[in-house]
Amino acid sequence: MILTSILDNDFYKFTMQHGVIKLFPKARARYTFINRGKHAFPPGFATALREAVNDMQHLQLTQEEKEYLAVTCPYLDPTYLDFLQGYRYNPAEVHISQHGDELEIHADGYWYRTILWEVPLMSLICELYYQLTEQVRLSDEEVIRITREKIEKYKQMGITIADFGTRRRHSLEVHKLVVKTLRQYGEGCFIGSSNVHLAMRNAVKPVGTHAHEWFMFHAAKYGFKMANMLGLENWVQVYRGDLGIALSDTYTTPVFFEQFDKKFAKLFDGVRHDSGDPILFADRTIMHYKGKGVDPLTKTIIFSDGLDYDKVTAIADYCRGKIGMSFGIGTNFTNDVGLTALNIVIKMYEALPEDAPRWTPVVKLSDISGKYTGDAKMITLAKEMLDIV
């Protein structure tokens, strides 16, 4: 059994699940695997993945984990924690097949259930890929040394860093080593992990708010023009000011800022950058806050798009003294082990809101076309509706 805790998942999956249960309990969703890197999967991979997925049905929230969430995350309702304690993964929701070296994965069911599959599925794909292709990583000692050097350099920069590395990590074992090392040597710099299980085990903060799928579903239910506004409104309805970092690029940042009005600019603590030029994004964000009469230094940008030391240095040098900033680093922490990291994603591709007559394809645009996901016709329609060139 590869995964050992139901909390071995990204925090925003649980915060979104909480919101879905409160607001959209009858909605359904479908997800699909996208092999961006065109990786070739070895014979028997689908069988091994199916066995690992089947094992996940035995995961359940322990009393210790429930008490941790109750204390650490008081904005999660007790009713939700009771629900999560009774939740079990249903492997029948995941469909896996292999044709030659190509892998096909789909998940479908009620959104409040299927929302938890994406991250552990991706981490399993990565871990099994390295196992079955018999690739040998760097030693534990080397992983610790590399991680220590990184966090000590970030610490000297006077910035804050979080681990965002669950999805494309080399393995759970490497992830454990990385977070433990970050915690040990990153005091004052390392502020938490998106992985709830490892945050709990290392006594650091679980980090995250919402993902693209939150806004993608809102587009299916309310239309592209209302997706950002109603996605933010509903987030506020659930969390009442907590978890106040807004994801900006689901339908491009310029479109987002058109609806990120003075109310949202004041209410949310900041925004997250996940695609496109980070310096251009910083400029746009600073100008937007100033235009709304908000001091940018009272707000924060969370940068999380494929970061490494050089990118972080350039961003920090530019933003320092202009706007608050923090950084979420993923693969560069949890899969820097001497092997090639997998370029894969799992994304929602259809949604069925309550009482909708049919499934609606959903898309993500982002600030670079290479990260678009979804049906080509729907992408074209979204760009036309939102006046995106």
TrEMBL record:
Domain of life: Bacteria
Catalytic reaction annotation: 5-phospho-alpha-D-ribose 1-diphosphate + nicotinate + ATP + H2O = nicotinate beta-D-ribonucleotide + ADP + phosphate + diphosphate
Domain called Nicotinate/nicotinamide phosphoribosyltransferase: residue spans: 160-386
PANTHER family hit by this protein: NICOTINATE PHOSPHORIBOSYLTRANSFERASE
Gene Ontology terms: biological process: NAD+ biosynthetic process via the salvage pathway
Protein name (record): Nicotinate phosphoribosyltransferase
Pfam family, one: NAPRTase_N
One MF term in the entry's GO annotations: glycosyltransferase activity
UniProt-listed Enzyme Commission number(s): 6.3.4.21
Domain Nicotinate phosphoribosyltransferase N-terminal: start-end pairs: 7-125
Description of post-translational modifications: Transiently phosphorylated on a His residue during the reaction cycle. Phosphorylation strongly increases the affinity for substrates and increases the rate of nicotinate D-ribonucleotide production. Dephosphorylation regenerates the low-affinity form of the enzyme, leading to product release.
Gene3D superfamilies, alphabetized: nicotinate phosphoribosyltransferase (3.20.140.10)
